[in-house]
Amino acid sequence: xxxxxxxxxxxxxxxxxxxxxxxxxxxxxxxxxxxxxxxxxxxxxxxxxxxxxxxxxxxxxxxxxxxxxxxxxxxxxxxxxxxxxxxxxxxxxxxxxxxxxxxxxxxxxxxxxxxxxxxxxxxxxxxxxxxxxxxxxxxxxxxxxxxxxxxxxxxxxxxxxxxxxxxxxxxxxxxxxxxxxxxxxxxxxxxxxxxxxxxxxxxxxxxxxxxxxxxxxxxxxxxxxxxxxxxxxxxxxxxxxxxxxxxxxxxxxxxxxxxxxxxxxxxxxxxxxxxxxxxxxxxxxxxxxxxxxxxxxxxxxxxxxxxxxxxxxxxxxxxxxxxxxxxxxxxxxxxxxxxx
Length: 340
Ligand SMILES: Cc1cc2ncn([C@H]3O[C@H](COP(=O)(O)O)[C@@H](O)[C@H]3O)c2cc1C
Ligand SMILES: O=C(O)c1cccnc1
Fold this sequence. Notes:
CATH topology of the largest domain: Rossmann fold
Number of helices: 15
Largest sheet: 3 strands, parallel
Number of strands: 5
Bound molecules: alpha-ribazole-5'-phosphate, nicotinic acid
CATH class of the largest domain: Alpha Beta
Distance between the termini: 58 Å
Radius of gyration: 20 Å
CATH superfamily of the largest domain: Nicotinate-nucleotide-dimethylbenzimidazole phosphoribosyltransferase (CobT), large domain
Number of domains: 2
Strand content: 5-15%
Oligomer: single chain
Structural class: mainly alpha
């Protein structure tokens, strides 16, 4: 599968840098905001960049075979889909603060439902995924189908006006899958990447390290190809999130990555479409070690570090005002040359 990923506009980046240096402030004094302003100018190909008015969060919901490694029961995944639909989740509340919309897509929730809107089920791939310590997460062909589902979700959001995309996740047990994907992508041992997720104790952490080690051993020799990696060690949600990220890049729409799940998916997505990472920013630093490894490998520095470990897109949403502020300095500040 080959993608043509556009290259952000270097001339707009340089023009933004020049303007930033001429703004009414000491050169460089707005620090990271200046870097973000130039990044957004390159993404939009203009100075100042366009306002970010239509921000969309898409929550990829699905169960993971290793859900027993979580501090919470598997049934929470489906129950949370209802919370997203009712507008009461963490990300719903935080998105409301910045005027972002939240959509939830059932990619692989393990439930039987009759009362969930058809639009939520429209991109469903399967129910749950395999327990990666003992079996593949996905059947042959499913990783590609899930990837294409994520791609369609990005297309739907972009075609209806989204100018900034945020991938969210909901899936009990998914931090073990993140650890496995990141370890396999970067050749790291399980013990270095496994984190406490929703809050397992030290015995739970040891079980998680053991399961991720077993998964890595089981999949050894098959992880070079990113779709094989998703099949062996990922999940339908991981593949769908990767597709979402690649399609945003292919259509030159900026993305704010969230926590550990979007970080792990991004690492695999970059292997599918090298260069796509130029369209992604890291919204925040998660407490999960695998996210730190993933972001470092992608060359991304988190905008915020608030100690969040929720997922759902909640951390990325927090970075939206910072990105808007970065644009505003370019759009609205006066010039040093006009000082009287
Ligand atoms: C009520 C609740 C809401 C959540 N929202 C996101 N997560 C987060 O926690 C899960 C990953 O952590 P682990 O691998 O330890 O299960 C994912 O569902 C993730 O989205 C939640 C978890 C819970 C319990
Ligand atoms: O930081 C995250 O993204 C995270 C951490 C723990 C559980 N779920 C998500």
